[in-house]
Amino acid sequence: MALRRLVLASAVAALSTLAGFAAQAQAPIVIKFSHVVAPDTPKGKGAQRFKELAEQRTNGRVKIEVYPNSQLYKDKEEMEALQLGSVQMLAPSLAKFGPLGAKEFEVVDLPFIFKDTEAFRALTDGPLGADLFKKLEPKGIKGLAYWDNGFHIMSANKPLHHVADFKGMKMRIQSSKVLDAQMRALGAIPQVMAFSELYQALQTGVVDGTEGVPSNFYTQKIYEVQKHMTLSNHGHLAYAVIVNKKFWDGLPADIRTQLEGAIKDATTYANAIAATENATALEKIKASGRVTVYTPSPAEITEWKKALMPVHKEMESRVGKATIEAAYKATGFVAPK
Questions:
Q1: What single DSSP character describes residue 195?
Q2: pTM, 2 dp
C-alpha cells in the first residue's frame, strides 16, 4: 500500500513538473521596446507596427512591450539599459552612438550632407550603413534597421535667417560632437539636454531654441514655447532599431527570422509615413498661429552652408576622413562654392 502511494505521488510530481515545463515553454518571449518620443510620431507608429507584425507572425510566441515617451529611460540612460539587458530593443537617434564610442556614426550629423531623402537612403542602405552597424557589435549591440524621420529645422524665440542671428543663442542639441561644433560654428552656445526635458527648458528660458523635425515639434508642443521656426533642412534625423546582441543571438532561429521580417516591413512603413507626418505636423504648427515659419532664400542657405563647412573638416580627426569621403560618395555631396 505504501509502495502504491509512493509510486502515485511520484507520478503526480512528474506530471506537475511536465506541466510546469509545458507552461514555461508556452510562455511568450517578452521584448521590451523603449523609446523617447510620443506614440503618434513616425518612430512611435513604427514601433507599434513592429509589435503587431511580430506578435502576429510568431503566433504569440513573442510579446512586444512598447514603452514610449521616456517611460522607462531617458536619452542618456537607455543605451546602458540595453547593454545590461534591462530592455531588449531601442530606436535611438544616430547621434547617440558617438558617445558610446562608435564615432563614425556622427558622419550622418554633418550639416547639409544630405541634399534629399534619396541621398540619406543611399548611405544607410549601402555599404557604409552596414559598416556602421558592425561597429556596434563589440559593444553588445546589433543593428537591425535604419528609420528615417526627415530633415531638421531650427526654432527659437527670435528669427533665425542669417548666421549672425545665432550669436549668443543657447541652443539645445543631442549629445554629439558634430552638433556641438555645428552650433559653435554658427556662433550659438550648444546645450546638451534630454528630449523629455526640452519643453520645460524652452518654457523657462534655460535654452533659447533647438533643432528638430516638425513631427516631434508638434507632438511635444514645442511650437507653444517658441515664436519662430526656420525651414533650414540643415540636418537629418534618423534612428537605428537596435537589440541586445546576446539576447538576439539566443533567440530560436525561426523566431529570429520572423522578427527580421517584421522589422523589415515595419521599416518600410515607418519610412513611408515620415515625410507625410512631418508635412502634416508643419501645417498644424502653422495653423496654430503661434509661430512664424520662415523659408530661407537660396542665398541664405548658401551662407549657412559656408559657415558650417569647417565642421566637416574639423570632424575628420574624430569621425575619420575615410568615413566622411565614403559618405560624400554615397550621398553625392558637393561643397558650396
A1: G
A2: 0.84
